[in-house]
Design goal:
Layout (H helix, E strand, L loop, with lengths): L2 H18 L13 H8 L8 H8 L7 H4 L4 H8 L1 H9 L5 E8 L5 E6 L9 E3 L13 E5 L2 E5 L12 E5 L4 E5 L10 E5 L2 E5 L11 E6 L4 E6 L7 E7 L2 E6 L8 E5 L4 E4 L2 H5 L5 E4 L2 E6 L5 E6 L4 E7 L10 E5 L2 E5 L5 E5 L5 E2 L2 E2 L2 E2 L8 E9 L1
Antiparallel strand pairs: 1-2, 1-26, 2-3, 4-5, 5-6, 6-7, 8-9, 9-10, 10-11, 12-13, 13-14, 14-15, 16-17, 17-18, 18-19, 20-21, 21-22, 22-25, 23-24
Length: 380
């Protein structure tokens, strides 16, 4: 069995078994004090108050959470619930895993996950991607909280759709979610103020969409916003200093960008100095904007806002990167993920280079040859 698939399949099998075969509970409690037995049996860990049990369990590394869920229904409900997520978040126990949306040789969408604390184990597939969307192109890919959203998209014989699917990383399950107001594909997306923004794209009959939508998790609904002068061909987006920046398709001569200010709900043009060096996938680390220039090899650039200039951080070894690449950040590490899930990790705090080439870490090569469409991090 392929080791890349075995772990995910085993975990899925364990969880499915848990759903169907988890009634191993004591039904006959004997002739003793039933109230005491009931109280003891209801505890997370017999003999310990639940607050102490939660204190212990919440410190178990995320990679073992799938095993915790197999102990009992009570543990599974705890690990999959909001109390667990909030408890770990409040105590800085959250861990980020990276999720990549790719397209394989058969033109089907596929999804993978990477645990940054175990890079040598490489990428693992996420099974159960909704069948209705696996052949779509231009699908939106965004993370809000502990959930991953796939929205919109279109196909060769399928017009733009408003369908939305949600993957709950704690439960390892896909479900259909609230639909977009307007069918759209090839939109960009960001998260700001605990809301998903789906911006621009192409609508039914290949019409341009000068609008954006916001998803409110509390109401599980999308709200449509109109903006006549949003340009149609949006290529990239970032969140920087509490604002959303969108960039149009680059050309050898020019590129344009807009910035959204949530305090006034308005879009404004972006200064040409910033736009001039934004040619490639971008990521923000600790308030600093980084861009991967792939026009000639792969070179990491950094925007220095105080002097309004782009500065070269260094080049990446052509032996490690396989453009086109996507970027995602976990703490101070930038993950550069290219074709075939080739992955290079670079720490911005310990930036070093040798003869202009950045010193970085890479993970074992994947057996796939997938094109990577987008990468996001889910923190639990």
């Amino acid at each position: 069995m392929d080791p890349m698939y075995s772990e995910s399949e085993n975990f899925a099998e364990i969880e499915n078994t848990l759903d169907n075969d988890l009634s191993v509970e004591v039904e006959d409690r004997g002739s003793g004090d039933n109230s005491e037995l009931d109280q003891e049996a209801s505890r997370l860990i017999p003999g310990l108050p639940d607050d102490i049990a939660l204190f212990c369990l919440a410190r178990v590394p995320r990679r073992y959470h799938v095993l915790l869920k197999c102990v009992s229904r009570k543990w599974r409900d705890l690990v999959c619930g909001e109390e667990w997520y909030s408890y770990r978040k409040k105590r800085n126990l959250l861990e980020s895993w990276i999720y990549a949306l790719g397209r394989d040789k058969s033109e089907q969408l596929c999804c993978y996950v990477l645990d940054p604390t175990r890079l040598k184990r490489g990428w693992k597939p996420i099974l159960g991607l909704p069948h209705r969307c696996i052949r779509r192109k231009g699908v939106g890919f965004e993370v809000l909280g502990k959930k991953l959203f796939l929205f919109g998209g279109c196909g060769w014989i399928e017009d733009a759709t408003n369908e939305v699917y949600c993957y709950d990383a704690s439960m390892n399950k896909w479900n259909q979610a609230a639909s977009l107001v307007v069918p759209r594909c090839y939109c960009v997306s960001e998260v700001l103020d605990e809301k998903i923004f789906a911006i621009g794209g192409i609508g039914p009959n290949s019409s341009n969409l000068p609008s954006w939508e916001t998803y409110n998790v509390e109401t599980s609904s999308w709200t449509l916003h109109e903006k006549p002068n949003i340009f149609p061909d949006i290529e990239d987006s970032i969140v920087l200093d509490g604002k959303i920046y969108i960039r149009g398709a680059s050309s050898p001569l020019s590129s344009s960008a807009f910035v959204y200010d949530p305090s006034s709900s308005t879009w404004q043009s972006v200064a040409s100095e910033l736009v001039s060096g934004w040619h490639g996938p971008a990521v923000v680390v600790d308030g600093t904007l980084y861009v991967l220039d792939q026009s000639s090899g792969t070179r990491l650039m950094m925007w220095q806002d105080d002097i309004k200039e782009w500065v070269a951080v260094g080049r990446l070894s052509p032996l490690l990167t396989k453009p086109p690449c996507r970027l995602v950040a976990v703490e101070n590490n930038i993950f550069i993920i290219g074709k075939g899930l080739s992955t290079v990790v670079f720490n911005v705090e310990n930036a070093r280079n040798m003869d202009g080439v950045l010193v970085s870490t890479s993970i074992p090569k994947s057996i796939s040859d997938d094109d990577v469409i987008s990468c996001k991090a889910i923190t639990i």
